[in-house]
Structure formats: C-alpha cells, structure tokens
Write a structure and sequence with these properties.
259 residues, 6-stranded antiparallel β-sheet, two-stranded antiparallel sheet, 16% strand
Length: 259
C-alpha cells in the first residue's frame, strides 16, 4: 500500500471515528500531518464520495459511498440486530452507555451502541477498533479464545510493536475465573462480558462509564450486564447462524488495519 493511500485511510478513519463533523485543522492535528496534506487527502476522499462537507460548517463527515459500505458490512454481522434491543435494555436499566464489540481478526470492533440517559456521567472514551488486548471489551474476547489462539495473538502483536501489558496471561486467567473484564480498578471504567459460540468468544457486551459507585450498585450492574450477555449468548448458541461473521473465513493475521 502506498503512503498516500495509507494516509487517506487514516483520514477516513479519523472522520468516521468520533461520529461528528471534523475540520481540516482538527484532522491534521489528530494525525500529526500538515493541514495542506490533510486538505489534499480530504479533497480526494470527497471526490470519491467517501467524505462530504457538513451542510452547516466547513467540516467533513462520511459520504454516501462510505455510509453505504458501512451499512452493507453491518448487515452481514447478524449479531448486531440480535443484540441491539438488549443493549437498549441494559442502558435503560443502568443509566450508562452499553455497546457491542465483535472480533475481527486480532481486533475488537464496536459495531453497536446504546447511549444511556446518564451518558454525561460516563468518563470512558469509546473507541471503534483496537487490538484485543487494549480494552476490556477486547480482553473479554481474548480470554475466551483457545490457548493456541492467544499465543498467536501475542506473537502477532509483538511483531507489530503493539505494547502488551505486563502480566496479561495471568490477567486473562483471572478474567475467565470471574467471568468479565474490567478497568483497574473496576470502579474506574467499563466492564465487559464475553459472548461465546461453542468453545470461544466472538463478541462482548460492554457497560461503559465511570459511574460505578462500588458496593451494592457495582454488584447490581455486574449482574445486569452478565444477564444481558448471557441472554444474547443463549440466542447465538440456539441459532448459530446469527453468530456468523463476514471475515471468519480469513486468517486473523491477514487482517491488518493502518496504524
């Protein structure tokens, strides 16, 4: 891939990630490139229909081509439609934003989100796609993969210079024992429960935010999130086709995103 094509993908990802219009200066600052370079990339993406100018400002949003591609991809991930009603139920019950992440190669990708009425209290930053080891949403999946798959992930991450937290493998064992992944300490951020199909996880349900107050409230939220993840998992196990992923036929190591 040429450097200009890689830069264009980074610009496209930067505009698509926050879900709000972004200007040239903001994009250039986020990517560490010159504003003129960012503008040329934006202009090329706009010509291709991948980006468009926001009608009320000189900022950019995803264009019709990118939105169409995204919708096509999401339609192939059937678990999203299964999970959305449950995510809304969880967000309503807890007042916190809930989300669904699926495994794509060695990454966890957020494909659905249900904002909670107390969203303003959430200090967590939602991210679209990260290596499985980076966030609780991904570690909940990673901990429930076969050991040989975890070893392959670690080799893949090391080869690409991805920093792996010390003591990851003992952490994954502890995660499996308690059944969910969390920030450290749990009261400071999200918790995530795996959704398993047969012997390994394909997705996770995450309850975002730093609104956990500890004690009985924390226990209630863990129980609510566990119940929602369990309900989705039961549906997937009863209807395996709902858990099919569009990239599962590919080797995980062949799916590499621009860094």
């Amino acid at each position: 891939m040429s450097s200009s094509a890689r830069r264009a993908l980074k610009i496209l990802a930067a505009v698509g990630e926050p879900g709000r219009p972004m200007g040239v200066t903001e994009i250039a600052r986020a990517l560490g490139i010159a504003p003129g370079t960012a503008f040329r990339g934006l202009d090329a993406l706009q010509s291709a229909g991948l980006l468009t100018r926001h009608p009320s400002a000189s900022r950019f949003v995803l264009g019709p081509v990118a939105l169409g591609l995204r919708q096509t991809l999401l339609s192939l991930v059937r678990i999203r439609d299964v999970a959305l009603p449950y995510l809304r139920q969880l967000a309503s019950a807890t007042g916190e934003t809930s989300s669904l992440h699926v495994r794509i190669g060695w990454y966890a990708a957020r494909i659905a989100i249900a904002p909670g009425p107390a969203e303003v209290t959430s200090g967590a930053i939602l991210r679209g796609m990260q290596p499985l080891s980076a966030e609780p949403s991904g570690r909940a999946i990673l901990a429930h993969l076969p050991r040989n798959q975890v070893a392959r992930f670690l080799n893949w991450a090391t080869a690409r210079g991805i920093v792996i937290p010390g003591g990851l493998e003992p952490e994954l064992a502890a995660l499996r024992a308690r059944g969910f992944a969390s920030a450290a300490p749990p009261e400071s951020g999200p918790i995530a429960f795996p959704i398993r199909k047969s012997d390994q996880a394909l997705a996770s349900v995450t309850l975002e935010g730093a609104g956990f107050a500890g004690g009985s409230l924390m226990s209630e939220r863990i129980a609510e999130c566990r119940a929602i993840a369990g309900a989705i998992e039961a549906l997937i196990r009863a209807n395996p086709d709902m858990g099919r992923q569009p990239f599962e036929h590919l080797d995980p190591g062949d799916i590499v995103l621009p860094s």
